[in-house]
Design a protein that fits this description.
The protein is an alpha+beta fold. The protein folds into 4 domains: 155 residues, BirA Bifunctional Protein, domain 2 (2-Layer Sandwich), CATH 3.30.930.30; 74 residues, no CATH class; 50 residues; 55 residues, no CATH class. Helix content is 53%, strand content 13%. It is built from 16 helices and 8 strands. A 5-stranded antiparallel beta sheet has the order 1-3-5-4-2, with helices on both faces. It has a 3-stranded antiparallel beta sheet with strand order 6-7-8. Helix 1 packs antiparallel against helix 2, helix 3 packs antiparallel against helix 4 and helix 4 crosses helix 9. The chain is elongated, with a radius of gyration of 38 Å. About 3% of the residues have low confidence.
Length: 422
């Protein structure tokens, strides 16, 4: 089996879609991963819309053209082989790019093989960042896929090709030693023991245990990994033994911590916090203004919002986490396993990206309204508070005014009578 990847730095989606569809009569074996359309032109449009989100960068990759090929088996019909090859391609997609756009088609124009052509977007659906795998990560996916095929589909009669260890150029002195004595060079023997330990491990801890069983001990010097042969005490750099094995060992060692390790870390933090409190209380009895270094570190953690036991994030922080504006902190934010699992899902990433995009669109389409609203708020804040309106006269004032009017009327009548007599 062969797995080949070729990157393209121009958005040539139309050309590759036409090339994939050139082998007619294979509609039953088409692969449409994270695609809504079924028509080739609409599929091309989906890839172009998703590619338009990519951050502009010189020599940036827009898409990948990848090929998965198997040799034809003699004991199976063509339809059975093509069905199994489709399952292999889907298994490869789920491991290599589960959240990207993928369009694939099967070709059978070669007499000795069946092969799939896959067009893979360089970014996840609705994401502006490119998904990049290191050589070691891509190599590991290829090896795991080959193992899966050999174990699940032995009837396909495939041979080990990807995992086959490349022959290292043996130095002339080592070749001469092997020719004269018949013994394998020491470095070849150490490399085989390292390879056996890697095969027998599944994570970082099991790798250390497997190396110990082989009589080896791992060491790090700067950026270089190496092993110590406990029998002879000699050190061997992995890059010198085999660069491919060095990359795979580095990948195994940098894997994320397990849930048990995170739980143990939280328990250690809790114990440190309790001991710091006890120490701080003892120091406070002796000298009220004294404070231990551990207590100061605890205060610094509390000021930053960290606690020994994660707490439910505030509504504002929870909103930012849901929009992918910030990354949750396992030591600070209390989240369930389902919440962590949803963060890696396509629907969550699409929803968060869509929310951020719509907010940006609203701000971009109505800058005048936004500016007018800000100016109105500024004027309202600077405007003095209006004075309260004067209320009407009170009942006492009204009675007092009526009494004055009556007195004025009476005095006016008296003046008129005196004026008549005169």
């Amino acid at each position: 089996m062969i797995v080949k990847s070729m990157s393209r730095k121009v958005p040539s989606f139309a050309q590759l879609v036409a090339y994939i569809d050139r082998d007619e009569g294979q509609e039953a074996y088409r692969i449409r991963h994270n695609l809504l359309a079924r028509d080739p032109e609409r599929i091309m449009a989906e890839f172009e819309r998703n590619g338009a989100l990519l951050q502009k960068r010189k020599n940036g990759v827009y898409l990948y053209h990848e090929i998965i090929s198997i040799t034809r088996a003699r004991g199976l019909s063509s339809e059975e082989q093509k069905t199994r090859l489709r399952d292999i391609a889907e298994q490869y997609i789920s491991a290599r790019c589960p959240d990207n756009l993928v369009y694939g088609g099967l070709h059978q124009d070669k007499e000795h093989s069946f092969h799939y052509h896959l067009m893979i977007s360089s970014n996840r659906a609705s994401d502006a960042k490119r998904l990049r795998l290191s050589k070691a990560q891509f190599r590991e996916i290829q090896i795991q896929l080959e193992r899966h095929v050999l174990e699940k589909y032995p009837e396909l009669e495939q041979k080990v090709a990807i995992e086959k260890r490349s022959d290292r150029q043996i130095r002339k002195a080592e070749a001469e030693l092997e020719r004269r004595t018949g013994q394998r060079p020491k470095r070849e023997e150490v490399l085989s023991r390292v390879f056996a330990a890697y095969q027998a491990s599944s994570d970082r801890d099991s790798l250390f245990a497997a190396l110990g069983r082989e009589g080896l001990e791992l060491y790090v010097r700067g950026r270089n990994l190496g092993v110590i042969d406990l029998e002879s005490g000699k050190k061997h750099r992995l890059n010198t033994l085999n660069t491919e094995m060095a990359d795979r060992m580095q990948l195994r060692l940098t894997e994320a911590q397990t849930q048990q390790e995170r739980s143990a870390l939280q328990e250690d933090l809790h114990e440190d916090r309790e001991s710091a409190r006890a120490a701080f209380a003892g120091e406070k009895e002796k000298a009220p203004e004294a404070q231990t270094e551990t207590a100061r570190e605890e205060d610094d953690m509390l000021e930053k919002g960290y606690t020994a036991t994660p707490e439910t994030p505030s509504p504002e922080r929870k909103t930012k986490i849901e929009r992918d504006e910030i990354t949750p902190d396992p030591l600070r934010d209390k989240m369930t396993h389902e919440d962590w699992k949803k963060r890696d899902g396509f629907l969550h990433k699409f929803k968060a990206s869509w929310t951020r995009t719509m907010d940006d669109v609203r701000k971009a389409l109505s800058p005048e309204e936004e500016q007018a609203r800000e100016e109105q708020e500024t004027r309202a804040a600077a405007k003095p508070e209006p004075k309260p309106e004067r209320s009407g006269p009170s009942p006492e004032q009204q009675a007092w005014r009526e009494e004055i009017d009556r007195s004025r009327a009476q005095s006016r009548g008296r003046d008129d009578g005196d004026r008549d007599r005169d």
